[in-house]
Specification:
This protein has helices spanning 3-18, 64-67, 84-88, 103-110, 141-177, 233-238, 260-266, and strands at residues 22-23, 29-34, 46-55, 60-63, 71-74, 96-102, 122-133, 183-184, 190-195, 207-219, 225-230, 251-254, 274-279, 301-311. The protein is of the alpha+beta class. The radius of gyration is 27 Å and the shape is elongated.
Length: 335
């Protein structure tokens, strides 16, 4: 767990225990854990935030620290008193806070229904305001937008370079912390085979039936594995990644259609085999990452994989209506 996250969580837990939430409009409740002493955010400003979004029952729904991906967005005109844009005007750059948005008020005032299936009254956010780019009172929109683009493009590039430089250390730390003795391929893939499986290995075009769990090399802020995907329903529930629509159990993956590191690693074991793959980002999602899956740029990945079956592609069917028969020579005319 990163030191900054530990401090923030300690502050959140400690201050929440000894302070009452302040009441705001629209059913809003909030606590400011740290006041940076800077000007408050206003409509039109652009902010960079790290935050944790939780249900009322303390279930984490989104965590930018775990993704290592703060969010940048403009502060829009509030729709109603106490909405998300309104509450941000209580904070300034450097502030950290926890606030609760009333879901019933949100549904009534915004016209958007509560999330399906939820019985919670509140949605809870713990935020840290990393940066505020303030729009001047008389500043033209076009001038401000250009300034904002230039600033956050530079900020993004610096962040990317930082992630790129940290990747090798993340892999090294993961291997050391887990006492792994890995083998490294020419591509840079590292692996540990715990069970080799049958002698026959999958080939390009084969469909592999696979049990797997994919995670980042860094832990979550609660100290648990940072899992982004799994075929194991129990693990999915424990990691807060359960999807009621998903089919759990061995999943079909066609060799040649997965990320390069996964394709390469699965060819090292046979049916019944088990392998741990440590995949550098250039064999995974690279500089772009996969934000919707919680994978930031230059993120090395770890997969625990079991190959339960290998299915060869079906032989091509004969053309419809065609008849396959021995060729009989045509009769010759009698002279």
């Amino acid at each position: 767990m990163k030191k900054g996250i530990v401090i923030l969580f300690a502050a959140t837990l400690g201050l929440a225990a000894c302070n009452n939430y302040k009441k705001g409009p629209g059913g809003l409740s909030y606590i400011i854990h740290k006041d940076g002493g800077n000007a408050k955010i206003k409509e039109g400003d652009i902010v960079k935030l790290n935050f944790i979004q939780k249900s009322e029952k303390d279930s984490v729904m989104f965590n930018t620290w775990d993704m290592d991906q703060p969010q940048v967005f403009p502060v829009a005109k509030k729709v109603y008193d106490g909405d998300m844009n309104d509450v941000l005007t209580l904070f300034g750059e450097g502030d950290s806070a926890t606030f609760k948005l009333d879901l019933d008020t949100m549904a009534a005032r915004s016209g958007q229904p509560k999330p399906p299936g939820t019985k919670d009254k509140y949605i809870v956010f713990t935020v840290k305001v990393e940066k505020v780019l303030a729009k001047g009172a008389n500043e033209a929109d076009s001038t401000f937008q250009k300034k904002a683009r230039d600033f956050f493009e530079k900020d993004y590039k610096a962040n990317i370079e930082k992630k790129k430089g940290a990747e090798a250390g993340k892999i090294k730390n993961y291997i050391a912390e887990n006492n792994l003795k890995t083998t490294t391929t020419a591509s840079g893939l590292q692996y540990v085979i715990s069970k080799p499986g049958d002698a026959v290995k999958p080939a390009l075009g084969d469909t592999m039936m696979v049990n797997y769990t994919g995670k980042l090399t860094t832990k979550k802020s609660d100290g648990k594995d940072n899992i982004f995907d799994t075929s194991d329903e129990k693990i999915a529930k424990e990691a807060g990644k359960h999807n009621a629509m998903a089919q759990y159990g061995p999943r079909p993956i066609t060799l040649g259609r997965a990320i390069p590191g996964f394709d390469e690693g699965l060819q090292l074991i046979g049916k019944g085999g088990k392998i741990t793959l440590i995949i550098p980002s250039n064999l995974a999602y690279g500089e772009g990452g996969m934000p919707q899956g919680g994978i930031s740029p230059f993120s090395p990945l770890v997969f625990e994989v079991e190959l339960t079956d290998i299915k060869k592609p079906a032989a091509p069917a004969a053309e419809a209506g065609a008849t396959i028969a021995p060729v009989t020579p045509a009769p010759t005319a009698k002279k």
